[in-house]
Amino acid sequence: MYEMTIQLRTDGGSCLYEQIYEHIKQEIRKGRLLAGERLPSVRFLAEYLQVSRCTVDYAYEQLLSEGYIEARPCKGHFVCPIEELFQIGDMETAGGGRTASAGSAVSPQGADAGAKGENYIDFSPFDIDMSGFPFGVWKKITKNILTYANSDLFSKGEVQGDYDLRLTISRYLHSSRGVNCRPEQMIVGAGNDYLLMLLEKILGPDMRIAMENPTYKRSFQIFRTFGYHISTVDMDDCGMRTEKLEREKGDIAYVMPSHQFPMGTVMPIGRRMELLRWADRKPGRYLIEDDYDSEFRYHGKPIPALQASDRHGRVIYMGTFSKAIAPAIRISFMVLPEPLLERFLRKCSFFSCTVSRIDQRVLNEFIREGYFERHLNKMRKIYGAKHEQLLESMQPLKEFFDISGENAGLHVLLTSKTGVEETELIQKAAKYHVRVYGLSQYMVKESLESKTVLAGFGGLSEAEIKEGMELLQRAWK
Fold first, then answer.
1. Which helix or strand (DSSP H or E) is residue 347 part of?
2. What is the C-alpha separation between 287 and 283, in angstroms, rounded?
3. SS3 131
4. Residue 423: which of 451, 399, 400 has the closest Cα?
């Protein structure tokens, strides 16, 4: 089933059902929705877009009457074969993975935090729940691929990763995140660390890069090894402050607009447009969009990627499957604007892809056959239940703490209202065998002592979350 991102307008222009109808029609005409592909059910799409079922029904009825889709009894709606409408090359181009490791203490996805203390309830913001992983499906796909493999599967493969996988990922990104790209613009690699190092070869030395403060420290450390001049830009409730970014005179801005780590900020469209205008004002400026965990959002409509609004090739889009599937997958991807793609092909085409072709084939089948979507839906329910349990268990703490970052991702932030510093909060929690994480470790520049701690819930059961919060109430009250 094809998952789609539709940016509905409520400004008094066309009505909602017309916008849904027009979006699906254009997806079919441009070949992004293929003949025989099943559309989301009326009920699912209505819930997904937060509109009435009648609104979606009207859109589907119009598509049915015009012959774009067909209804199959007891099965749903499917795209009709209309190949003569497919417009080759009509794909919008935007111009021009981080790897997860459970128990990490330095990054949202990667690096070892050291062994967990015995009998500790660890509110790590980096752990994920592996109990829902479809081991049987993964084994079945792997077995089938190896059973019918030929020598080609064990050859070196394409520099940017297998084309079939890049095509599958590009279609998934367009439907789920609104990303506009051709498979040719994508590079598949073993983790975001490798892709950032490859990006340095593309961009060249002596770049000036601006990062939010606090930020994802692993990327900061990688950029520092390049010898880049790194400046920090303070944040407000909307993310990186563009008026301060202007004063830094940078070439690159590294941002996480869909869910900033560690603050949990979701950047609104106005700030996104400001960033794109900043990049447009000077040749050679780019935005690196790190979209590390966009799959998990608990309130409001799905938010398209920043790259979805880029019309002049200014966004370098990066993502990973480590959070959504498993840390060991170690498959990330980077979408290059057209000018940087040309530079990559000219300067870096001799590099080999760092991901096994077998792993690429398994992931391709996992996504293409619909298993990935089903897995995501399952994990959203699991994490959603844990998220509700966490917020419910935190209610008694609201007298003493401000809670933020709760709309997306796998952690929330607690900031002391009474001025208690994070070191004291962490020490008191440890006495009750609970582990929380201080915000200060993600600060790039010196600042006042933080009064904020992070509490993750991805790797804990609902019972552990409840027990851990009860212990924190005793520790902190």
1. helix 338-347
2. 12
3. coil
4. 451
Q: What is the pTM of this model?
A: 0.77
How far is it, in rounded angstroms, from Cα 468 to Cα 159? 47
Please state, in angstroms and rounded to a whole number, the distance separating the CA atoms of residues 267 and 265: 6
pLDDT digits (tens, 9 = 90+) for 430-446: 999 999 999 999 998 76
How confident is the model over 66-80, as a mean pLDDT? 86
Partners of 318 in beta bridges: 290, 334
Terminal alpha carbon distance of the chain: 49
Nearest residue to 278 via CA among 303, 241, 305: 241
Residue with tokens 């202007």: 246
Please determine, for residue 84, whether its predicted confidence score (pLDDT) is greater than 80. Answer: no
**At CA 121, angle to CA 119 and CA 125, rounded to 5?**
140
Cα separation, 200 vs 243, in Å, equals 26
153: which 2 tokens?
Answer: 């599967």
Q: Which residues lie below 8 Å from residue 20, measured CB to CB, with a gap of 6+?
A: 6, 8, 45, 49, 51, 55, 56, 59
Q: Look up residue 93 and give its DSSP letter.
A: -
Record the tokens describing residue 368, joined without a space. Answer: 């293409």
- Cβ atoms of 457 and 465 within 8 Å: the answer is yes
Q: Sign of the C-alpha dihedral, residues 94, 98, 99, 103?
A: negative
Give the torsion sign (CA, 149, 375, 39, 171). negative
From CA 245, how far away is CA 225, in angstroms rounded? 22
How far is residue 161's CA from residue 198's CA, in Å, rounded to a whole number? 14
**C-alpha–C-alpha distance, residues 445 and 460, integer Å:** 32
- The answer to whether residue 31 scores a pLDDT higher than 50 is yes
Q: Whose structure tokens read 């170690």?
A: 330
Average pLDDT, stretch 269-293? Answer: 93
Taking the C-alpha atoms of residue 93 and residue 272, their distance in angstroms, rounded to an integer, is 18
CA-CA distance, 375 to 294, in Å (whole number)?
15
How far, in Å, are 169, 268, 361, 362, 423 from residue 163 at the CA level?
10, 34, 10, 14, 49
Contact (CB, 8 A) for 431 and 424: no
Residue 139, phi then psi, degrees to nearest 5: -65, -40
Tens digit of each residue's pLDDT (9 = 90 or more) over 179-204: 999 999 999 999 999 999 999 999 99
Pairing of strands 252-255, 286-290: parallel
pLDDT in tens, 383-433: 999 999 999 999 999 999 999 998 889 999 999 999 999 999 999 999 999
Q: Report which DSSP code applies to 84.
A: G
- The SS3 call for residue 114 is coil
